[in-house]
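Batch job 17 of 40 flagged for manual review because the log was empty.
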Amino acid sequence: MDSFAFIIHAMDVADIKRHIFPLRPFPPSWVEYLASRIPPFILSHVRGVRSAYNGKEIEGWFIGLPMTPRALLEYPFPFVADRIRRCGLLAEKKGAKIIGLGAFTSVAGDGGITVKKGLRIAVTTGNSYTVATALSALELACLRLDIDLERETVAVVGATGSIGRACALILAERRRRVRVVGRDPEKVERVRREVAEISPYEVQGFVDVEEGIRGCRAILTVTSAIGNLIEPSWIAKRAVICDVSRPRNIAEEVARTRRDVLVIEGGVVDVPGEPDFGMDFGYPPGKAYACMAETMVLTLEGRFEDYTLGKEVEVAKVKEIEALAEKHGFRVSGLRSFGREVTEEEIEAIKRA
């Protein structure tokens, strides 16, 4: 049976303390330091993922890496790359043929290129399918709220990152109006020019988030920032925000204080078959992150290759993985907001507000 592995890292210090009891008495900085020295371990055995196309069934393993986003981004990269590579070596021992880099393990350093060195199995970040599902979720949400994307401008916050850049390029290819929002002026201008080359409309670039999203009723947040980026008062009336980032860029406060705004999670999919993930990572049974799903799709397809690596996502691969996922029965998981499904009553309430 073909098999895969996927890395899941801690989202915060509290997450580490919940799973590693001896570290509970220590202050946060000590917890991060000590936990980062603990070898990766098997979190669960995944069973029951089955293709709707040909009935092929696969198995996999979720591998735990006790490092927080801050540690993955701020600790010396050679050390971080070594810890991630150890996850790959563990996956090899279990017999996996490909490993997916979850959340900030795909952001740290050079997007998996250094991590791949020394591994015999294939490596992917999962970012191609994340782009595809984020755009699908945004389009679905806008359709439900009667927002016409042919008339609106989509602000891509984090457009200089691998996922954000690909989202901006595909939106422009689909003849959508796009704003490029990022922190680095030079990178913003570079991506703005790329998008402008294929867009039929003027493309603006911004380094100030408040200014960049002003008046936009369709917003994608795809940054590697740790913490909340958008204040409730900055958001246009009856807007949709698709938050693809993990940890989230949008606080629940936005949903509580802005009853006229819909905040959804991008990159959540229904997995075909009768999947048993062997653990609870915050979603109902059968649902997974798109980056996880990319690894599963490639395993079902028998494509054991370094599919999405580096700091740029190829538009062609976004389209290919979306088609392969649909072929095997993966589907965008409706509209979800802060871990729960958005009801029709909530949609109507937002419209009234």
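Reviewer: the log was empty due to a logging misconfiguration, but the result itself is present. The mean pLDDT is 92. Unflagging and moving on to job 18.
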